[in-house]
Design goal:
Layout (H helix, E strand, L loop, with lengths): L1 E5 L3 H11 L4 E5 L11 E2 L8 E2 L5 E2 L3 H9 L4 E4 L2 E6 L2 E4 L3 H6 L5 H16 L11 H9 L1 H16 L8 H10 L4 E4 L3 H14 L3 E3 L2 E8 L3 E7 L2 E7 L1 E4 L3 H7 L5 H8 L3 E11 L8 E6 L8 E4 L13 E9 L10 H15 L7 E14 L19 E3 L12 H17 L1
Parallel strand pairs: 1-2, 1-14, 2-10, 7-16, 14-20
Antiparallel strand pairs: 3-4, 5-9, 6-9, 7-8, 11-12, 12-13, 15-18, 15-19, 16-17, 17-18
Helix pairs in contact: 1-8, 1-12, 2-12, 4-7, 5-6
Amino acid sequence: MNIGIIGAGFTGLATALSLVRRGHNVVVLEKESYPGGLAVGFQEKGWEWSLEKHYHHWFTNDTSALGLAGKLNWEVVIKRPKTSIFFQDSLYQFDSVSSVLWFPKLSPVEKIRMGFVLGLLKFNPFWKPLEAYSTSQVLAKAMGQSCFDTIWNPQLVLKFGDYAAQISLAWFWARIKKRTQHLAYPKGGFLMFAQELTNQIRKEGGKVLFDTTVLNISSENAVSVEMQSKKIHTQRSFEKLLVTVPSALFLQIAPQLPSEYQKKLKDLRGLGSINLILRLKKQFMRDKTYWLSICDLNSPATAIVEHTNFMDKAHYNNEHIVYVGKYLDPCHPFFLKSADELLDLYDPFLKKINKDYRKNIINYHVFKSPFAQPVIPKYYSRILPPFKTPLRHVFLSNIQQIYPWDRGTNYAIQEGEKAAELICAS
């Protein structure tokens, strides 16, 4: 079959590799100049490795991602970095039973209740009954209001904003179920890994076209795709087409979609992501914390991730790399702010962690994505977009269909391999 794929993120690339290995003719269309999707990276002068614009890692049970790395003979680095929380202007390690037991801001009873609830979620294999409940209601009742207000509510609010109270317990279950203490990272960074995957697709007969913007999709006997590449306007036909871009973009390029289906996609909610990346001469979190979850409702940031407390700074010309992450509605005014403006906004908070960090700044960058986190309300399975779309021979596989799991490259790869099977069977 002659198959088109829109999007060279990990879903599109994994689908393409799987299909070319089944003997199909595959063309991937990507509007950017590089592969990777949300895991796309950049590389500064003097850096040995690329760095993601938005922080990424794998868990050691991310079998699809690790399996693909194995197929490509790509080295994966596995380490156990430190995870902490920020509460009342202090950092507390919070990534093991012993560190939680030593946390001074919860009573022994609260720690026992929290541990019991997290243990139940970790070892419970059944997620479907949980989507009838909200995370906020269950955690407040099961762990106690004080524990919930101290640890979990600030994290939910800083991540989901006004949607925090709506988030399904199935989403929280997935976060706890998949978490591992050891984390994995592809050697060279996700951009280099995506480039290797692209090279492999091309070696095996597939095509990956960059700087190619899809303008319109129509479907009758075959799927017609109108596109523009380097000011050249062309049209191409495919027997099957997989769309991997966010649903909002799919709606823009497929005006033929029935109004009822369009409404279902429009009703799905999502948040954008803003990451301010600091490049420093010295370590930002001196206790070697990699991931810092913020338990302070007044914080302007959702999380702080010091990448070089996970990966060796030698790969980045001995610079210390820090992400200051924030999830927001894509219409939020923060998306209009420059890196300078954002740094000024974050500065008072960042100085609570390291009062001297500004003396060590080499440079800083801001990267924004209008869609990075689906909002998962109760009974999300009832509104989950199906793989088949109303357009004949057109299929959809994107970040909003990775359920009950949370977004991530592992599930993008898993969904891509699944998409290849479904396309072949259709």
